[in-house]
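Forwarding the complex inputs:
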Amino acid sequence: MEQSPQETPFGSEEAFHGAFAELYPRLVSYARRYGATFPEDIAQEAFVILMQRDVRVEHPTAFLYGTVRTLSLTERRPMKNQNLSLEAVSEPGLAGGADDQVLNQEVRERMRLLSPTFREALWLFVVEGLSIREIADILGIPEATVKTRIHRAKAQLKDQLNPSGGVHVLV
Amino acid sequence: MSWSDPARRFEPAEDVQLRAELRDLLGLGPVAVASTPAAPSAELAALADDLRREAQRRRRTERKRPTWGLLAAAALPLLAALAGLGTWGFQQKHRADGLALQAQRQEQELTRMAAAHAAEVAQERQAKEEAQQQLQLASKQGGRKAEPYLVIPVEKPLKFQGDDYQRVKGKP
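Prediction (whole assembly, two chains):
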């Protein structure tokens, strides 16, 4: 399905402005967590790429996150550090942005102890608030795999909170 | 989120509950639901418009490369190879046809020569038989044995006589 030049991927112009205002800071923060040197440029480029497409994108949010992830990893490619996968989340000084105000030291430490694969899915699901389907689109994996990773991350978090194997008070 | 995204509009209840549990485990607390979405700032709105214009400019200036053109470009070496092979095959077939025609003509010529030679041999054999028959017939009629060679009858030899000539005086 093609979109007309006046139409935006988010619908009307007003909806586009609202989506941009909400997503842009999060995308900048997301690019920064991947260690991008110019996270603002990457987030803006992702929006341009999304609106440049002739074919309408089904899940624009997932498309934007996926594009930012790809561009950030491409920018890091010469450094041969593509396998870090959100390592910057737990590194003070590297991870910045609005989300750091919500993530206190304890949360960062819990996230750091998770394996990178689970941490990425958990971050997108909990902190970014994306759906399972969107995360599957971003990471290029099946939805069942995303669910598995999130549930394993949950199990690891429980183990962190109660290493002796007892029942956690919050569960 | 203030704008509607189909992926989040139809999110299953179990996923929402799982997210809440995970937020609890991380100590993040419940998701704050904004009653009224804050209006985007003028700077962000201007930036969004700029990006939209940039996307439109790229769409206008983007060189459209049709799919069939790419396919044709990809298939060009294959087509060239096929054409070359076809031309070579056609030449080989043409050459083989010429050689076959030439061989057929040579065979026809040889057959014709063999037939002519056989006819000539038969004719000579027939002539020989006729000659033998005539010879036998002549031998029977003449009562003589047929000589194996030709006999020429010879006249009585002439004698040279001295007075059979006179001298003729020469001119004065």
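The helical segments of chain B are 6-9, 13-26, 42-61, 67-142.
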